[in-house]
Amino acid sequence: MADKPLLQVRKAGIQFGGLKAVSEVNMEINQGELIGLIGPNGAGKTTCFNLLTGVYVPTEGDILFNGERLNGLPPYKVTRKGIARTFQNIRLFSELSVLDNVKVAYHSLAKHSILSSVFRLPSHFSGEKEMEEKSIEFLKIFQLDKLKDEKAKNLPYGQQRRLEIARALAAGPKLLLLDEPAAGMNPQETHELMELIAFIRNQFDLTILLIEHDMKLVMGICERIYVLDHGQLIAEGTPEVIRNHPKVIEAYLGEEVAGDA
Ligand SMILES: Nc1ncnc2c1ncn2[C@@H]1O[C@H](COP(=O)(O)OP(=O)(O)OP(=O)(O)O)[C@@H](O)[C@H]1O
């Protein structure tokens, strides 16, 4: 018997004043899938992420995660339910070290209490040590462990993007949302990132939804793709279906959608 989808988006949307930024979006994403969300500039992709993560409250429809309605939950509660994200414009604590950027994510979930931290009880130190060890494990996966004491702002752009993913992973998500993870990366970095995304999906039993303009990346690793245009879903299917879909070709008129360039 098939399990129910991990994420169900039912006719969800949001209106800003007179503008329907996203409207009647339906999605069903199953545990373990790696799914793409694409669309021309301004199509509503980041707004969808903001709806899924509680940054915006939908003005229509429902968002269900593990069968539970998320509408109206603030972002930190959505994270605790198991949805973590990265941002289109990197949001790291630029003055903190690479290691501390990951530890911050752990802190939000740490089991030891505030009291034990304030009074520096033994449980505080064991919790802190465990957190540090686990953070370093994440950094190793992203080949950032040797840079752990470097300030985040001093990392090259591609490494900052990887650090953002490491930090999102440290929150222990079931669903990871990646907003243009390859933006600003060169082809070699993008290729390594593709492998890394596929690796962490398997390693951490993750479900991943990613927004990306790099069609080679999207077509190369996603099993299914949703396409937004002017706030509405215009197509859904395998890379093969999307590549040849007339509405997608029309929406991207003049742009590269084949992803095999
Ligand atoms: N808080 C807001 N208030 C008003 N309009 C908004 C708000 N957030 C998004 N929009 C509008 O919603 C539309 C969709 O924007 P969104 O950033 O989601 O697109 P996108 O597909 O992520 O684009 P891009 O690929 O350029 O990042 C745009 O017209 C944008 O101006």
Automatic annotation (TrEMBL):
<protein>
    <submittedName>
        <fullName>ABC transporter related protein</fullName>
    </submittedName>
</protein>
<dbReference type="InterPro" id="IPR032823">
    <property type="entry name" value="BCA_ABC_TP_C"/>
</dbReference>
<dbReference type="GO" id="GO:0005304">
    <property type="term" value="F:L-valine transmembrane transporter activity"/>
</dbReference>
<dbReference type="GO" id="GO:0016887">
    <property type="term" value="F:ATP hydrolysis activity"/>
</dbReference>
<dbReference type="InterPro" id="IPR003593">
    <property type="entry name" value="AAA+_ATPase"/>
</dbReference>
<dbReference type="GO" id="GO:1903805">
    <property type="term" value="P:L-valine import across plasma membrane"/>
</dbReference>
<dbReference type="GO" id="GO:0015192">
    <property type="term" value="F:L-phenylalanine transmembrane transporter activity"/>
</dbReference>
<dbReference type="Pfam" id="PF12399">
    <property type="entry name" value="BCA_ABC_TP_C"/>
</dbReference>
<dbReference type="Pfam" id="PF00005">
    <property type="entry name" value="ABC_tran"/>
</dbReference>
<dbReference type="InterPro" id="IPR003439">
    <property type="entry name" value="ABC_transporter-like_ATP-bd"/>
</dbReference>
<dbReference type="GO" id="GO:0015808">
    <property type="term" value="P:L-alanine transport"/>
</dbReference>
<dbReference type="GO" id="GO:0015188">
    <property type="term" value="F:L-isoleucine transmembrane transporter activity"/>
</dbReference>
<dbReference type="GO" id="GO:0042941">
    <property type="term" value="P:D-alanine transmembrane transport"/>
</dbReference>
<feature type="domain" description="ABC transporter">
    <location>
        <begin position="7"/>
        <end position="255"/>
    </location>
</feature>
<dbReference type="GO" id="GO:0005886">
    <property type="term" value="C:plasma membrane"/>
</dbReference>
<dbReference type="InterPro" id="IPR027417">
    <property type="entry name" value="P-loop_NTPase"/>
</dbReference>
<dbReference type="InterPro" id="IPR051120">
    <property type="entry name" value="ABC_AA/LPS_Transport"/>
</dbReference>
<keyword id="KW-0547">Nucleotide-binding</keyword>
<keyword id="KW-0067">ATP-binding</keyword>
<keyword id="KW-0813">Transport</keyword>
<dbReference type="GO" id="GO:0005524">
    <property type="term" value="F:ATP binding"/>
</dbReference>
<dbReference type="GO" id="GO:1903806">
    <property type="term" value="P:L-isoleucine import across plasma membrane"/>
</dbReference>
